[in-house]
């Protein structure tokens, strides 16, 4: 077989690059995907009870980038959806990001009023404060509050999810879910938020439905690559696997999802509920809240963090911390040496904790670089 480009992986990174190369540069593209479906971790499907589920954990689309939103809007309409999450603290389900509503749900009215006043005096209203910053800068009663939130919302969950405490990770990890001095219960405040109206998989099908794109499912690229003639490859799998782990394995966290279908319309009040150390799982997910599907049944999933074994487990979360970045940089240097033949991009190939919109933005930026290279005079 002869093609212009081979793309390994059909998640948002691979699908965006395949679509752009095919439609904008009229290139022949072969997408090779080792799973039996397209979409990477954003894949969704109907389960045996007819409920639309997200096989690899709930995926909520949110972005501030009009470029990304407009790009994807060519392939889908959107169902407006604002994600809400609760975390169980002292047996109560309260909003997370921890906000003023959480404060009032957990403390007696008078004390909550005092803490609210102190928070606003110190930081202002409608301000987001990462928990590690709150801990450093708070004193007196606010230091008590910071410690309470740290212990109950962050420490337990983070230990279970990452097997590291928040201080052992890049500060950006817990800063994704800052304490929010407001009454806004939404998980994200991005300008654009929603779910693909008919699901993620139809969105991917439309992205890849181009006469210049061929798709090979159930195939590890290593098993077939010798039989394919191609100009260049874009690889979106784990970068250490590409180089046969020559510098050692990059650490990841993986998850196990346990699905359960119940004969009731809804199980919980919002799409995600987070749990601390007292439970073996970190989250209970209920995708009907996200998809808006009407059914007398519902499917929920329990999320259990698990040890990752390179080559065996699904690499779900790169672990953002300095020593891992150093190891990644060794692989990045290897990638640099072969960039004329292979380009690396995506959450696994860049070893970066990208959200979906960041994966698409990264792919669109890489595509621009490819255009510049391909159209540059000899
Ligand atoms: P992936 O989606 O991982 O795709 C990589 C593909 O490459 C996979 O399909 C894999 O099978 C394939 N592949 C790997 N190696 C090979 C090989 N050797 N041969 C052939 N194929 C190969 N983002 C959000 O914005 N909102 C959310 O709510 C959200 N929730 C998430 C929840 C979980 C549990 C996880 C793990 C991630 C979540 N994300 C979320 C992040 C989102 O999944 C990623 O940003 C996105 O999937 C990145 O796309 P990608 O194409 O880079 O990688
Ligand atoms: N986090 C936490 N408790 C929560 C929510 C988040 O400790 O109730 C921390 C935890 O370390 C988590 C990180 O914040 O991994 C980022 O959370 P996010 O919801 O962004 O994680 P993701 O959706 O990517 O799994």
Automatic annotation (TrEMBL):
InterPro entries for the chain: UDP-GALP_mutase, UDP-GalPyranose_mutase_C
Domain of life: Bacteria
GO molecular function: UDP-galactopyranose mutase activity
Pfam family, one: GLF
EC assignment: 5.4.99.9
Keywords annotated in UniProt: FAD, Flavoprotein, Isomerase
Cofactor(s) it depends on: FAD
All copies of domain UDP-galactopyranose mutase C-terminal, residue ranges: 153-353
Family designation: Belongs to the UDP-galactopyranose/dTDP-fucopyranose mutase family.
PANTHER family attached to this UniProt entry: UDP-GALACTOPYRANOSE MUTASE
The protein's name in its UniProt record: UDP-galactopyranose mutase
Species this chain originates from: Paenibacillus aestuarii
Species lineage: Bacteria, Bacillati, Bacillota, Bacilli, Bacillales
Encoding gene (name): glf
